[in-house]
Each structure stands twice: as C-alpha cells, then as structure tokens.
Design brief:
- With 520 residues, this protein is an alpha/beta fold.
- It has five domains: 68 residues; 104 residues, Periplasmic binding protein-like II (D-Maltodextrin-Binding Protein, domain 2, 3-Layer(aba) Sandwich), CATH 3.40.190; 113 residues, Periplasmic binding protein-like II (D-Maltodextrin-Binding Protein, domain 2, 3-Layer(aba) Sandwich); 93 residues; 34 residues.
- It is 40% helix and 17% strand.
- Helix 5 packs across helix 6, helix 5 runs antiparallel to helix 7 and helix 13 packs parallel to helix 15.
C-alpha cells in the first residue's frame, strides 16, 4: 500500500539500507528511528535517538536520507516535527522510464531496430501530449524505450511475460504507455484508463452508381417488374376468356389469345388498339385495367426522370450481414488485430462473426486499402488507425474520398490505458489527471489533432500526389450539371437490340414453317 505509514527501528548505521529496501520501493511514508546506545530498561533512559526519513523521488539518482529530528534521552525533549513530510505530487525531477511500441495516433516514434537500448523520441501523438503535460504538472523527466523483443507481450508457462508487459513486470521500467486493458494484464500491473479502444469498421470502395444500362428498369424493383408482367399476362388471358365465352352465346368473333396479350401490352405502352370492346363485360374489365395502368405508368415515368437526373447508388456495405450478402466478394482484416487477438477466429460463437473472421485475410492496412481500390474487396480495420491513410492517400483535392467506411462498428478490444508497476505510489495521481482530461474532452481533441497534423505533414511531403488514377471518378461522384447522355439510354438501345435479335429468328422460323406447309 503506497499510502501506508511505516515505522522502522534499528541502528543508525543501517538507516540507508533499511529505508531503501526493495520491499519499500513504493512506500511514500516511511520513518526510521536510529537508536545508538539507547537504554530503556532503567528508570532513567539514556542514549541518542535520531528520526530519519527519505524522499521517494530525490533530485538526481542519489538515494537521499534526511534527518527529521535528534535528541538525547533523559536530557531533552524532542522538538515538534512532521514525521511524514513527503508526498508524490512533486517528483522533484525524478526520471521515469517508460516502454512503448508505435501505435499511431496513440503512440508514434521512429523505431531504431539496430540499437533498442537507447531511448526514442516521441513524435506528435496522444501519448506525447499526455506525458509532456503530466511531467510538467508532477515535475518529472522521462525516457521512452522499445521492448527488446518488439512485442506487446504474452504470458509464459512460468508466470512471467514477454514484451512490454514483461519489461514492466521485472521492474526495468516504471510505466507502460498505451496498452489494451484486460484481466490477464491486471494481475501483473495497475492499468489507468485513458480512452476507449478503437472499434473495427468495414472499409470498401465508395458505392458506385447503378450501371447506366439499368436506367430503364431501375424505377421498379425486380418484384414489381415480375408482378407487372404477371398482371399483363393475367389480364390478357382473362380478356381472351371473356371474349371466348361471349362468342359462344352471340356468335361474334372474339380476339385471339395473342391479340388479347398485345392488347394488354399496348395499353401499358399507352398505344391500345383503336377499337375498344363493344360488350359491357369487356368494357368494365378494360376500364379497371386503364386505371391500374394510369397509376403504374405515372409512377414509372416520375421514377425514371428521377433516376436519369439523379442516379441511385448501389447499397453500401454497412454491416457484417451486408458483407456476407455480397456475391464474388472477398475481405481482409488488419493483421495487428489478429496478432493482438489470436483467438478471435475460434472463440466467437456468433455464426456471422465466426464466418467473417474465418474467411478474412490478415494483411497490412496499406495493402488492404490498395485491394479495395481494385474492386470486389472490403477491409476490416480499426477506425482511428485508417483515418490518416484515407485522408492522405484516398481523398482528392476537393475532399472527396474513394473509400467508404461503414456506419456500424464492432468493438472487440477493451479500453486503452497506461500500465504501472503494482502498488506504484504515483498511480492514483496519474488516474486523477487522466480522468480530468477525459471529462474535459481533451483526449478526443488530442487524438483528432494528432491525426490532422499527420495528414498535413504527409500531404505537404507528397504535395498532393494522386493515387486514384485507376478509379472511375465519374462513377463515384455525380456532377451538379444534369445532362442526359447516350450512356443514360443504353438500356433502351439494348431493349431494341434484344427485340431485333428475337424478331429475326422468329421470322426465319415462320418462313420455314410456311414453306414446309406449302410444299405439302
């Protein structure tokens, strides 16, 4: 317990070793009574008593021991003094050693793999702002190191850890910068929450417009078109049957089945035959069909105008269910997610999540975004991590991005925070500062500012290099000027071509049949 008050007794020559015993490395309030030639059993006690204390975080690297008071038993009364005068609000320039790995925008620095023993210089990131702010408040200096195995850390059979966690567990450092909080790590360190973890989102190519050749059919869905064709057939057959029944009683000629179907089709196209039926039964049936056609044709025309002027886009991929519904589609996942959560593919019992993770390809963020541009591919990535890449590499000078990020996100990691040695005396002070920064919204602001700063830096270095030359920009973003071009009517020309393609072989077949009958 860092706040526990501890009193020790012993010889004065042992004060240095007693006060700096490893067992008391986290103790703030500790008092040592140095007793030299002290006799307490007689009626007149004698000897010299000296009260010692230490400053937990002395200036420099020396282990400082201070005398609080000293007096001779039986000769004088001790002067009043504060036996526990020190606190950890001011660390008096003490050096705190930290361990971390680059994890932008939370931590960022240039890793020197040739010599990991040297401290690194933090670049603009959340942790740089945090440690600079807190060091100015608590008056300490700091150094940041890379773990020797360049890993976050995994547990070993003997109970020890590797990586960043092992470095902190062994006491080689005092603090671990940004790290994921979980139950296994809490057993070996104190974790102070800094911010929420980065959720996973689905990134895909920006939804494209529905192909131009589908403009003629896009006003109605497939179900509506099916019901319309079925209605034409049913009405035509019904009209023909009514005529056949009436002709048996009156002897009048009725329309053939083909003529009735074309009658029904002609009304839909607003080109019905010039002579309406004479009998009242047919007129009633025709009247109601005209009302239905009026509603259908009005809806089609208005929707067609809307689709030709402002084209609809394909449905975006906003969820795992949308992703699984795609045909001939592949997807990958950020490789660091798999390395940080190696059991993600086997532990999840949800069938949708299980299928998503089992069929995902672990690749880097850079490679994942490149495959998105090629089409037919989605990439599962942490939201904050991908924002910089999208803003710098896949956004044009007008601020239009070619990468679509899903509205729904999935959180699989616990919150992020800093790690401290168990019982660290300054842990509560860090927690208090973190909480105030979180409540004030400073943490979120610093994250956004770090990303914006990186984007400005990269754009300045690349001078707006365009990597989107392989993307059909016209099919991603619509123009303000609505001009109907040939491509808008491709569907009409395709229908005409289909009609000619069907009519020609039909003509040939009819001629062959006619010649066959004549020859006989």
């Amino acid at each position: 317990m860092p706040d526990a008050k501890i009193a020790l007794f012993g010889r004065q020559r042992d004060v240095q070793s007693a006060l700096w015993m490893p067992a008391f490395q986290n103790s703030i309030h500790i008092l040592y009574l140095g007793l030299d030639d002290v006799t307490l059993k007689t009626s007149s006690p004698s000897g010299v008593v000296t009260m010692y204390s230490r400053r937990l975080f002395p200036d420099g690297e020396s282990r400082e021991v201070r005398v609080l008071s000293s007096w001779v038993l039986g000769c004088e009364e001790p002067k009043a003094f504060d036996p526990f005068p020190y606190n950890v609000r001011d660390l008096h320039g003490h050096l705190l050693r930290a361990v971390s790995l680059p994890f932008f925008p939370y931590v960022d620095y240039q890793m020197n793999l040739q010599d990991l023993s040297k401290p690194v210089a933090l670049r603009n990131s959340l942790d740089k702002k945090l440690i600079e702010t807190i060091s100015s408040i608590m008056n300490f200096t700091y150094e940041v190191y890379t773990p020797a195995d360049v890993r976050v850390g995994i547990p070993l059979p003997n109970g020890s850890w590797t990586g960043m966690i092992g470095t902190l567990q062994r006491g080689d450092v005092d603090i671990s910068l940004m790290i994921t909080i979980n139950a296994a790590r809490l057993a070996f360190m104190d974790l102070a929450r800094v911010c929420e973890s980065d959720p996973i989102i689905i990134t895909s190519l920006t939804p494209q417009f529905i192909p131009k050749y589908l403009a003629i059919v896009s006003p109605f869905t497939a179900n509506v078109w099916a019901y319309l064709v079925l209605s034409i057939v049913i009405w035509g057959v019904s009209f023909w049957l009514l005529g056949e029944v009436r002709s048996k009683f009156t002897g009048e000629r009725s329309l053939t089945l083909n003529e009735s179907l074309f009658y029904s089709w002609g009304i839909i196209l607003e080109e019905p035959p010039p002579r309406p039926p004479r009998h009242s039964t047919g007129q009633v049936l025709l009247g109601w069909w005209l009302v239905a056609v009026l509603v259908i044709s009005t809806g089609y025309r208005s929707s067609l105008v809307a689709n030709l002027s402002v084209q609809s886009k394909m449905k975006p991929i906003d969820s795992y269910e949308d992703l699984l519904s795609q045909r001939n589609w592949h997807w990958g996942i950020q490789d660091t997610i798999i390395s940080g959560q190696p059991n993600i593919r086997t532990n999840d019992q949800d069938p949708v999540l299980k299928k998503i993770y089992e069929n995902s390809e672990p690749i880097s963020v850079e490679r994942g975004l490149e495959k998105i541009v090629q089409g037919g591919y989605s990439f599962l990535v942490t939201r904050t991590r991908v924002r910089t890449d999208i803003a710098t590499k896949y956004t044009d000078e007008y601020g239009r991005t070619f990468i679509y990020t899903s509205k729904q996100s999935y959180k699989i990691l616990s919150d992020f925070g800093w790690g401290f040695r168990k019982g660290s005396p300054y842990y509560n002070l860090f927690v208090g500062i973190f909480n105030r920064l979180i409540d004030a919204g400073i943490i979120d602001y610093w994250i956004a500012e770090s990303i914006a700063s990186r984007v400005r830096q990269i754009r300045k270095e690349t001078q707006g290099a365009d990597v989107s030359s392989s993307i059909d920009v016209d099919n991603l973003f619509e123009s303000n000027e609505v001009v109907l071009k040939t491509r808008h009517f491709i569907g009409v020309f395709l229908v005409m071509l289909a009609g000619f393609s069907i009519a020609l072989p039909t003509l040939l077949v009819e001629n062959l049949i006619d010649n066959y009958h004549r020859s006989r």
